[in-house]
Amino acid sequence: MGFSCLSAHRKSFRPLCWRSYYCSMPRWARSGGGTGSARADAPTNCLPLCREAEGAMGGDGLVSDLRIDPDGLTPPGKQLLPGFVHYPGVLSPELQQALLDVAVSVTSRARDEGVSGGWHRKDDNGRWSLNDGTKARFWDRIDGIFPKGFRELGQDLARLSARDFPRDLAAPVAAFEPQVGAVNYYTGRGRMGWHADDYNFAKKDRPIVMANLGDAAEFGYRAPVAAAATGAERSVRLESGDVVVFGGEARDLVHAVLRVYEGTTPTNLRGGPGGPGPLVGRVSVTWRDCGPEDGLTFNSDERLGLTVTENTLPRYLAKRRGGGGGGGGGRARSAACWGCGGAVESSGRAGQGYCQACWDSWRR
Length: 364
Hints:
With 364 residues, the chain is α+β, with helices and mostly antiparallel strands. The protein is 21% helix and 21% strand. Strand 15 and strand 16 (343-346) form a beta hairpin.
């Protein structure tokens, strides 16, 4: 299965109506567990609620409120580095919920059918776990996977940054056509190590747009590799509803998720890997302009071994052979350096991806 093809087990997207959130949750989540049985107090007919909410939906039944008007917003955006912009609280609570609904839907379809996929790995003993230890990663093409309005929201946010900081971002944003949606989930212990996004995961001359939902996170950043003279590390706290954009000079920004602040999710946000209750943890939603022409010919299911293909990383094949869905067991595993492509040994620590030579050169 390639990135350009839909997995056979994928359902066509059924968009989520926030007023009738329960009826649109996956079957496993409705019960709060993995049995697929509905709760005793569940509504038996959600259709009236869905019809009542059609005013917030498009006539074709697709989510139509996944949009902002960049020209009508005057948020206090701050440029942290040339080309790296932070917009605190730019997403309204309603838009945060709608975006979270989308994230839960696209990452839970496989579990709804009882197989590994999306955020979820089914171990040999039948137990479920996140697909990458204390976090879960997901990416796939937007067309056919994400609802109408999702791509446009990413473009709206990018245009907001170009409007406010045209010297650094107008040109990169003008060509921005996101093809891939990436949705990551972090538990309170979830981290992402220092890295710069490769050009097969976002074109060199296009921005990357990321929204933060749920728990606040400490987002570390360093000047792009080519411009890093001192290697000073800085960080910004991202709250739920915050958005960051990095492009232009900051396209190769070295960044990391250093900490998740547990228990800081807004009380009104509901949904996540654990079911339809209050969100516990952090969700990041990222829009990326890349595709097969850049070498991205696979999705996260393939790369993480949830569906084994020639694109599966060797370290995830062990999980398919009974290695479990945890953090890697402490064994050294060979992988390719994200910088030079050479061999690098990983002990399973989240974020390991660079050889020592690349790491040292970036810290100088």
